[in-house]
UniProtKB/TrEMBL annotation:
Residues 210-464 form the EAL domain. Coiled coil: none annotated. InterPro entries: Biofilm_reg_signaling, EAL_dom, EAL_sf, GGDEF_dom, Nucleotide_cyclase, Rev_trsase/Diguanyl_cyclase. This is Diguanylate cyclase/phosphodiesterase. It comes from the Bacteria. It holds the Pfam family GGDEF. Residues 63-201 form the GGDEF domain.
Amino acid sequence: MESTINRHHGGLIFNSRDVTERVRLQAQLQHNAEHDPLTDLPNRTLFTKRVQQALSGRRSTDRGTAVLFIDLDGFKAVNDTIGHQAGDELLVQAARRLQEAVRHGDTAARLGGDEFAALIVGDGTRDREARERHILELADRLRVTLSQPYLIDGTEARVAASIGVAFAEPGLGAGELLRNADLAMYRAKAAGKGRVELYKPQMQQDVVRRAELAGRLRSALHDGEFTLLHQPVVRLEDGRITAVAAQARWRSSQGVLFTPAEFLRGAEDGDRTAELSRWTLEKAVEQAAERAATGLAVPVVVRLDARRLVDRSLPPGSVETLLTRHGLPPGALMIELSDIDPRTPLDELERRLTALRRLGVRIALDGFGSGHGAVSALRRLPVDMLRLDRGLVDNVVESTRLYKITSGLLRIATDLGLQSVADGVDVPEQAVALRAMGCTHGQGMAFSGPLDEYRLRRALTRGHCPVPHGPAEPAFAGGGAGRRTGGVPAVLGGTTVLGTNATIPGSHNETRVPPT
């Protein structure tokens, strides 16, 4: 109740009124201003306020206070494939799991989008290593909890959690602590996602470097600094060039060519990598059509991240439109799928690939033999060719175990009626061994390096590359995992890039090109 007293003609007037509804409304407005409307968790404003309170009121018994920043990896794919309503339900379930995982007195919050946070109040542990271990164990349990499947209207959705951890330190303000946790989370995503990272001071320098690289990459795409090279894919039986694999290169202002592994390693900018994927596909189709018009009709292989086929960066029908615009027959394009992991929505990917197969585009599965994801994809997806993981090819001559594993995988390909291609065939002994095992095609420095357009056309005019010959059974060097050196010289723009005694490093399943 709210009461007032007023004097009137020598007397008093008492007024009372019920303000319960107004107080309730004010409390509701205050709650709404400080809580997320979807999950009802504290929002960024309230979370920041509680971090400030924890830091300003920290006593000697509050040691170990930490902030966790959490990002749900793969959430965008859920939105794009099963809808935003399902995405909202996943966020609600994730918020519930987070709230149940933290202790009473700690704070779980949603900062916006698929980002959450937790404030873990110190437990009085004075030993720095002990408190770090305790918080990191808690963060890892939280990562596992948030990465469990979500059941939404009978559909199972999967995401992973990347978590950054930062500890309160003397003299550190709330803004700095939140920034440190954010940097650690960014590092967790850059290091492979689905992991926990503890903040370290050098992370700030890494972020600045990545931002600069992303900016340079953006400018390079805009200014036309990228070029496309092609590496022949040869039939191991006779050396005939049956396809060419498109590989993007960034030519710096100094004339140095950088491989994608080099310029994308520190630039985890999804928009830029998606733009580069589109550029590579469009340029590869355009150049393949130009070569076909001159009588050099050889299929082109374009490597695409599986996520690009299920998100909005490559809409349905865009491949068909591209082929029609340049007049390239669909059978002259092979899309090589890479980076398939358990979070990839296989139902949607299967639909997209089936439509492409129906159009006439051929599909290759990259990384065969590298993990469970490739096996699951092989069981579900329509593919024409299997590409052996480079890790198998690297040591197939030296390791008895790898030789047997690779032989078994190639038998699977043969039994399924699929062609096979070995990537990174860099020395003659690998080519000989793989051919003996039944591998149908190879790509690597044992045949040719990536070529510019002029040298590619010369190679296609010849129509074949030299194929090494030798004993069918390799002589194993004790089953070890050492690398054998050697190979044949390859040229790029007239420059010999490998000598006969050079050691050939791997680079993200792609033959590396040294600076020119």
